[in-house]
Each structure stands twice: as structure tokens, then as C-alpha cells.
Amino acid sequence: MDKPKLITVQVRRGDKNESKLVAYEVPVEAGQSVLGVLQYIYDHLDSSIGFTCSCRIGLCSSCLMRVNGKVVQSCTTLANGDMVIEPYKEDALVRDLVTELPPISQASLNNPKNINPFKDEEV
User: Fold this and answer.
1) pTM attached to this predicted model
2) How many domains does the chain have?
């Protein structure tokens, strides 16, 4: 079994009025998701960090974030080396990585294939 690799993760912390990047050193194992990295930070380094998640299998999009400038679902994106994690939309920022998600219509909930969390984003 391989020894976990230590990576530097910079997380945008703060709110709409003031924010800064905070760096964390995190051990990462092969196959670990970005959400797993954030959970490690919360559990072992800084329990005040704010982020959201729900299904953990890529369906709900509550874990949308920008990782190294690209909007991704953190639960299905693998942690591959040093990274900068920021909220997916600055104008919807609540705190740290927590953002207000657009409302999902009942029609979309009845047919999850219609849900497109990236429709307003450059992917």
C-alpha cells in the first residue's frame, strides 16, 4: 500500500465582503476526491471551514466548487496534486465555499437528466 502523498490545498475563506486564501497541508491517497480532502481538513485541521455536500455521488450538485479555476463537482473530482479551491460563484457566496444554489424545478427533480448545474458557467 502506497504512503499518502502530502499536498498543499489553498481554500478561499471568508464572505462576500472579505476573503483570503488559507493553505493546508493534507495527506492524499490515490482515488481520494476533492470533497474527501475538504472533509479531512474539517475533521483534522480546521472544523470552522464551510462547504456543502449531500449525495456524494455526483447527482445533486450541492458540492460545486472551482478547483484550480475550473467548476467541478467536488465529490466526483479526484485530488491530483496541489490545488486552489474557491466557491463556484462569487456573487452567490454565503461563507467560505458555501454558495446559494439556484432553485431546481419539480420537473428537473422528476427527471434528474434535466439538471445542469453548469448551464451558466464556462466548463
Assistant:
1) 0.79
2) 1
In a domain, 21, yes or no: yes
Where does residue 43 rank: exposed (0-12), middle (13-18), buried (19+ CB within 10 A)? exposed
Collapse the DSSP code of 4 into the 3-class scheme (helix H, G, I; strand E, B; otherwise coil) and give the result.
Answer: coil
User: What's the gap between Cα 32 and its chain centre?
Assistant: 13
* CATH number for position 100: 3.10.20.30
pLDDT in tens, 42-69: 999 999 999 988 777 766 677 889 999 9
Q: Check pLDDT > 80 for residue 10.
A: yes
Mode of pairing for the β-strands spanning 5-14 and 83-87:
parallel
Distance CA 116, CA 102 (A): 11
A 10 A CB-CB count for 11 gives 24
Residue with cell 464551510: 50
Give CA–CA dist 7/26, Å, rounded.
5
Tell me whether residue 47 is in a domain: yes
